[in-house]
Amino acid sequence: MEKKRKLFCEYGPIAYKISLFKEAKKKDLIDLKNGKKFAKHKSKENFEYIWKGDTKLLLRKLQGVDMQLQINKIKNLELASKKIDGIIVYPGEEFSFWNLVGNATKRKGYLEGLVISNSRMKKGVGRRTMSNG
Fold first, then answer.
1. DSSP code of 94?
2. Phi and psi at residue 78, in whole multiples of 5°?
3. Which of 114, 107, 15 is nearest to 72 (CA)?
């Protein structure tokens, strides 16, 4: 039986962070090469809007899930929404949540919540994850 080669990102937390950084920069270069333009202009003006769609409960009892994680989710959504509120998407631009909000880290004030990693739900501070190294 052939032994599967270990990916660089699997050698520990530092290797994982290096791999995340490399993948993000690789994506940035591809976007630059393809001429992608991302919305980044903010307006302080309040525009009228039409609300259409579903609304979701922010707090709900989930079996086996600490309610504090739900409370933390609200705080995290408040932080992220401040980064995207007022963004104007001009013709030819794309809206990118990750380009506007960036990585959700404890240092930026984000709190522990439910994250999905490797198709599993667990506690953590949200961040980009990699599917391969």
1. B
2. -60, -45
3. 114
* pLDDT confidence of residue 88: 92
Alpha helices in 12-131 (DSSP H): 13-33, 67-84, 97-101
Q: pLDDT for 15-47, tens place per residue? A: 988 998 898 899 889 988 998 999 999 998 887
Q: Is the pTM of this model over 0.90?
A: no
- How many Å apart are CA 8 and CA 15, to the nearest integer? 6
Two tokens at 107? 């240092």
Which tokens in the block code for residue 18? Answer: 């290096």
Q: Assess whether pLDDT exceeds 70 at residue 132.
A: no
- Asked if residue 130 has pLDDT above 50, the reply is no
Q: Would you list the domain boundaries of the chain?
A: 8-41+64-124
- Dump strand ranges (E) for 1-129: 113-117, 120-124
Phi, psi (degrees; rounded to nearest 5) at 30: -65, -45
Neighbours of 63 (CB within 10 A): 4
